[in-house]
Amino acid sequence: DHWNTYITEDDFKFMSENGLNTVRIPVGWWIAKDPTPPKPFVGGSLKTLDNAFTWAQKYGMKVIVDLHAAPASQNGRVHSATRDGYREWGDSYIPDTVATIDFLAERYSESPSLIAIQLMNEPYGVDLGSLKKYYQAGYEAVRKHTSSAYVIMSNPLDRDSKVLLQFARAFDRVVIDVHYYNLFWDKFSNMNVKQNIDYIRYNRASELSSLTSSNGPLIFVGKLSFPSNNISKLGLRNICFLRNN
């Protein structure tokens, strides 16, 4: 059974014992309809998330609940629960999306393990005005239930990483999530390990420095990815060695 074997209490114990203090858990909008979500979705995700919060508390860890799949897909990618590649999320889906956030905030606001709720993962190709409207409504939904949890707003993948900074200054305990992929462009797939590391060290670090010195909200690098087709096992060991030294 997938729910009972993929991630277990032993994983939380292992993570805690090895220095990890926070987990980011992706969920789909249909979790608010559990245990009988509309087809083709299956029930069981809510109980699994409940278990994760129990284990996190037991082992002294924090949880970021991340709305990874919004109604109608916010990016047209399979991980946002679209099977046909269409992205249809927009103004008409804001109420349903906010309702999901409200459900999650109400359910977990009293848990000592809740550290943040992420309103959406990787919006791409959505109208910026609609996204800001949703982020404000989602923020207010979280604040109905908790004043201490951070609210994470994912920067649109197709926009400049500073596009939300001015907007987010109006809110309290907001974090901007930026994702960096050394993927999807030929310049990355043709780089060796050292070139990938140097790109992060000089290009990504410079951008992050600019973001974090902008007198705005906190910045969170939620994803950092390398191409795998040109990095050997030895290269991966070198990356880990550099990371740990």
What are the secondary-structure elements, in order, as H or E?
A: HHEHEHEHEHEHHEH
According to CATH, the homologous superfamily of the largest domain is: Glycosidases
Structural class: alpha/beta
Query: How does the major sheet shape up?
Result: 6 strands, parallel
User: Could you name the CATH class of the largest domain?
Assistant: Alpha Beta
Order of strands across the biggest sheet?
1-2-3-4-5-6
SS strand fraction? 15-25%
CATH topology of the largest domain: TIM Barrel
Q: What is the 3D form?
A: globular
Rounded mean pLDDT score = 83
What's the number of domains?
A: 2
In which range does the helix fraction lie? 40-55%
The helix tally amounts to 9
Task: Please name the CATH architecture of the largest domain.
Answer: Alpha-Beta Barrel
| Low-pLDDT sequence parts | 232-245
Domain Glycoside hydrolase family: 3-223
Pfam family, one: Cellulase
Keywords: Glycosidase, Hydrolase
Protein name: Glucan 1,3-beta-glucosidase
